């Protein structure tokens, strides 16, 4: 069976042939013997003709390639080098390429290079090995205020004109503890819609200072309302409770006598110009009354008595006696309470809308003053 030539064998023959073209005489015979020993003469003769044709083609193409100007080997030296190359060639069937062997050397603690940091590098600080007893450092943060509190000697002294007057606390003399009567609106109506403790005028925007008929001020515990004339005078808050409501005040006269009276003005159509409305009041000697005022009627206004003075045991008589006064206005029906007791009812349709306020009427005492501790209302 004929031996098959690999591409490598043909390449070797090509090299010999090209080299042999330059040899003559004994050198060429030596080259042919070397080729015959490696590949066998029979094979060479069998394939000599096609091989010559193939080499001729390569020679024609090689004519276009530039030749090196280096000094060529002599014939004896060339024959010797080719014989050495053929002897070192691998036998037929052996692998033509040898797999490279990768031999990595992993760095250990003993063969690491000694690197010194340059000026642009940051040296690495080694962490010391822990001792047998680890050192535990406990850092307790301390917080100091940004601004130290000044001592009593460092506190600035305000000018006298900027100091507020010292307000003497007023004892809770209003309404001694008593059992409320059945039907007391405070128990039956539930929590109020709004309440003003009357500590300051700012909650309900009460007007303060004197006017033609009254003078109003706040002590920090209650409102003081003083009548400056023998005519009734009132103050309206800056809120609008609606048209149907139950309103109640807790008030006491500082010093009173006879028919000095005070109470609630309600159904005032225009709170900014309170020239109309109903007035329900109690007197220092233990009576109540209801009357209506229309300051826009006639030349000097018109007053109309709806309920004349009626004595009532529900009223605490005399100076510095607190009383709860309540008025309920629903449509054209008005219901009146004193200290939680229902005392009277009246129906009138003259004024059907408007809020409420407080008033004082100094009949027997000059500059009658009442203290108002609380004003509340329930919207209906």
Task: List the SSEs and their pairings.
Elements (H helix, E strand, L loop, with lengths): L6 H14 L5 H14 L1 H6 L1 H15 L12 H13 L97 H4 L5 E3 L12 E2 L3 E5 L4 E5 L5 E3 L9 E9 L7 E8 L7 E8 L3 E8 L7 E10 L11 E8 L2 E6 L2 E7 L7 E7 L7 E11 L1
Antiparallel strand pairs: 1-15, 2-3, 3-4, 4-15, 5-14, 6-11, 6-15, 7-8, 7-14, 8-9, 9-10, 11-12, 12-13
Helix pairs in contact: 1-2, 2-5
What is the CATH topology classification name of the largest domain? Jelly Rolls
Helix/strand-derived category reads: alpha+beta
Number of E-type strands? 15
By CATH reckoning, the class of the largest domain would read Mainly Beta
CATH architecture grouping of the largest domain: Sandwich
- Tally of distinct domains: 2
**Residue runs with pLDDT of under 50 for 5 or more positions:** 41-46, 65-70, 92-110, 117-128, 134-172
Beta-strand share of residues: 25-35%
Listing every helix as H and every strand as E from the N terminus to the C terminus, the arrangement reads HHHHHHEEEEEEEEEEEEEEE
Q: State the helicity in percent bands.
A: 10-25%
Q: Mean pLDDT score, rounded?
A: 75
How many separate helices? 6
Characterize the main sheet.
9 strands, antiparallel
List keywords for this structure.
380 residues; alpha+beta; Jelly Rolls; nine-stranded antiparallel β-sheet; six-stranded antiparallel β-sheet; 15 strands; 17% helix
């Amino acid at each position: 069976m004929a031996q098959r030539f690999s591409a490598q064998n043909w390449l070797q023959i090509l090299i010999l042939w090209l080299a042999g073209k330059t040899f003559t005489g004994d050198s060429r015979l030596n080259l042919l013997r070397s080729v015959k020993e490696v590949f066998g003469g029979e094979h060479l003769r069998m394939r000599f003709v096609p091989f010559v044709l193939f080499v001729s083609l390569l020679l024609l193409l090689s004519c276009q390639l530039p030749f090196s100007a280096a000094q060529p080997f002599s014939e004896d030296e060339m024959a010797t080098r080719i014989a050495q190359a053929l002897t070192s060639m691998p036998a037929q069937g052996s692998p033509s390429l040898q797999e490279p062997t990768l031999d990595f050397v992993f760095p250990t603690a003993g063969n690491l290079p000694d690197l010194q940091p340059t000026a642009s590098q940051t040296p690495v600080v080694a962490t010391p090995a822990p001792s047998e007893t680890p050192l535990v450092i406990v850092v307790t943060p301390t917080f100091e205020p940004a601004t130290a509190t000044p001592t009593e000697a460092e506190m600035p002294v305000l000018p006298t004109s900027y100091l507020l007057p010292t307000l003497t606390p007023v004892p809770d003399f209003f309404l001694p503890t008593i059992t409320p009567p059945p039907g007391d609106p405070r128990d039956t109506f539930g929590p109020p819609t709004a309440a003003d403790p009357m500590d300051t005028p700012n909650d309900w925007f009460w007007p303060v200072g004197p006017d033609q008929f009254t003078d109003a001020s706040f002590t920090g515990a209650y409102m003081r309302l003083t009548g400056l004339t023998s005519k009734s005078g009132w103050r309206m808050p800056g809120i609008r409770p609606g048209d149907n409501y139950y309103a109640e005040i807790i008030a006491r006269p500082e010093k009173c006598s006879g028919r000095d009276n005070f109470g609630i003005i309600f159904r005032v159509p225009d709170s900014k110009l309170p020239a109309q409305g109903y007035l329900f009041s109690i007197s220092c000697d233990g009576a109540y009354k209801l009357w209506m005022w229309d300051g826009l009627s006639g030349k000097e206004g018109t007053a109309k008595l709806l309920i004349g003075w009626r004595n009532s045991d529900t009223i605490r008589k005399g100076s510095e006696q607190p009383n709860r006064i309540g008025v309920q206005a629903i449509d054209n029906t008005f219901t009146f309470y004193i200290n939680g007791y229902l005392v009277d009812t009246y129906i009138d349709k003259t004024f059907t809308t408007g809020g409420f306020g407080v008033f004082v009427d100094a009949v027997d005492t000059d500059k009658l003053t009442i203290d108002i501790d609380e004003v509340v209302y329930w919207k209906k």
